[in-house]
User: Fold this.
Amino acid sequence: MDRTAREEYIFGSILLLSNKIQAWGDSILSSLTLKQWFLLLLISKMENKNPTINEITEFTGTSRQNIKKMLEHLDEKKYLKIKKSKTDARALNVSLSKKTYDYFVDNEKKGAEALISLFSEITEEELNVTCKTLEKLLVFFGIYSGTVLKAAENA
Assistant:
């Protein structure tokens, strides 16, 4: 396979895997989608424990509209609270609820077992190369500034 064919294969595989991973994760988690869980996890790893929606948007590299919609659903489910900022009338602050932290604790073992199963056939060397490759792709899209891997390392 030449370089172009490999690049096309990787690109298509990432798109296919994204859908498969989301469906797989959704089947493992209860009451949250994989994307909702990941958003809560990222927020929990932010230095500011009462971030604005704009800060969350910047931290996650996702559109404000998408983040706000997800946050509103999570607010309805009582995983977080959205409140007007006390310091900026235009801003909305987000704070995670006890329900979120309880959810993390209650599902930690199930999540760890799922990841072990998912990566059971992947060697350490393959993991290292994959991490470096994904980091370069994230840099290309302006998403990676160390925050994603730091959040994952602290999970």
In short: The chain has one domain: 3-120. The chain has a mean pLDDT of 91. The domain at 3-120 is CATH 1.10.10.10 (Arc Repressor Mutant, subunit A). The longest strand covers residues 80-84.
